[in-house]
Design a protein that fits this description.
It contains 13 helices and 13 strands. It has 385 residues and is α/β, with parallel strands linked by helices. The protein has two domains: 238 residues, Type I PLP-dependent aspartate aminotransferase-like (Major domain) (Aspartate Aminotransferase, domain 2); 127 residues, Aspartate Aminotransferase, domain 1 (Alpha-Beta Complex). The strands form four sheets. Strands 1-11-10-7-6-2-3 form a seven-stranded mixed β-sheet, with helices on both faces. β8 and β9 form a beta hairpin. Bound molecules: pyridoxal-5'-phosphate.
């Protein structure tokens, strides 16, 4: 539990004995860098996803970077990515030397990337699509995979919001060549900093494994166990490894994920019931459980046009309720000035000033939900033009 400032924080982590013990036992084991706990975390995560392979990394951004490199994105390539997204997706595309091409969302009811706009953005230089599952709600994978196949594009899934989420019964992150997850403190499976890549492709798995650790053919852990005495370097890799302490936390969190996602679903449903249509507020993804299971990472509402979001956020902050914005569109950032204006993104622009993210985490009480609902409605009413 975080202390002090907020009555209802945006997200919160558990700090119970089981987690403390997992970390303490690992510290006492005397082996802190990547080793058996990371291997077990990978195995269990692959199992959760129904993937052949899972590789743990230092964070979700590292996962995206390695995934894009492994599928050979580079100079001269264009990579399609939604602008209503965390900036890491676009930054990592730039770091490979490729060019991000921003794609619009479907609209107010569906903040995921619009397959029709993806199709419209394809050029002979297009190499890949980075598919985000916004807030834990699966993107239209049937349509997107179809477009990818038609134009021979690689799909990388940014499943940072969607561990445990499904699309037609299959786990998010397992549709593209590689699925990327984040275990940052505010995500559904928090360890502080951490990430994971899943793939069914043996060759991609081998590339990812090498790129994660300097391109070296053996690990310190292998040498420690006497399983290897030396190594070769076969590619120009990075140090993007996860450590044992975080993997130990991850193993505990992984067990909790299904129950916590269920609790998130309940909270989301209550927000939806009480807020959708009240004071002009709407909640995107109005039929979330229809055929796909959301992981309910974010509770996002759209305020009516003309409402001063800053005033609403300030009013809520005065009540010690923390809110956020997911996201300021990437194409509006200074670093993307040059790339940002290339395609019209009208539906993204139309929600950019209206999206507001409400507190959502498994440990939220009914009283806290009620407080957020009541305070939001009155804040929106007073900030309406
Ligand atoms: C959190 C997040 C990332 C980056 O993950 P880190 O672990 O913070 O590096 C990437 N994409 C999305 C959509 C995210 O939410």
């Amino acid at each position: 539990m975080t202390e002090g400032r907020w009555q209802v924080p945006l997200s919160d982590v558990a700090t119970d004995d089981e987690l403390v013990r997992a970390a303490a036992d690992t510290v006492k084991s005397g082996w802190w860098s990547m080793g058996p706990r990371v291997a077990e975390f990978e195995e269990k995560f692959a199992e959760l996803c129904g993937s052949s392979h899972a590789l743990a990394v230092a964070n979700g951004t590292a996962a995206l970077h390695l995934a894009l490199l492994a599928v050979e994105c580079g100079p001269g390539d264009e990579v399609l990515v939604p602008s209503l997204n965390f900036v890491a997706a676009a930054n990592t595309i730039v770091h490979t030397g490729a060019t991000p091409v921003f794609v619009d969302i479907c609209g107010d009811d569906d903040l995921n990337m619009d397959p029709a706009d993806v199709e419209a953005a394809v050029t002979p230089a297009t190499k890949a699509i980075v598919v985000l599952h916004y807030g834990g709600y699966a993107a239209d994978l049937d349509a997107l995979m179809g477009i990818a196949e038609k134009h021979s594009l690689v799909v990388v899934e940014d499943a940072a919001h969607a561990p445990g989420g499904t699309y037609n019964g299959r786990k998010c992150g397992t549709f593209g060549a590689i699925g990327c997850f984040s275990f940052f403190s505010n995500k559904n499976l928090p360890v502080g900093e951490g990430g994971m890549m899943v793939t069914d492709d043996d060759e991609l798995r081998e590339r990812l494994r090498l790129l994660r650790s300097h391109g070296m053919t053996t690990l310190t852990w292998d040498r420690h166990r006497g399983h290897a005495h030396s190594y070769d370097v076969v590619t120009h890799g990075f140090n993007y490894r996860l450590d044992e302490i975080r993997a130990a936390l991850g193993l505990v969190q992984l067990n909790r994920l299904p129950k916590e996602n269920e609790r998130r679903a309940e909270i989301s449903a209550r927000y939806r019931k009480e807020l959708h249509g009240t004071a002009g507020i709407t909640m995107p993804f109005p039929d979330p459980e229809a055929q796909h299971l959301s992981s309910h990472h974010l509770a996002v509402v759209l305020m009516p046009a003309g409402v001063d979001r800053f005033a609403v956020r300030t009013a809520l902050e005065e009540r010690r309720i923390q809110t956020s914005v997911h996201y300021p569109p990437i194409h509006q950032f200074s670093a993307y000035d040059e790339l940002g204006g290339r395609r019209p993104l009208l539906r993204t622009d139309a929600v950019a000033d209206r999206v507001l993210t409400l507190p959502l985490y498994a440990g939220m009480s009914e009283d806290q939900i009620e407080t957020v609902v009541g305070e939001l409605v009155s804040a929106v009413e007073s900030a309406s033009p």
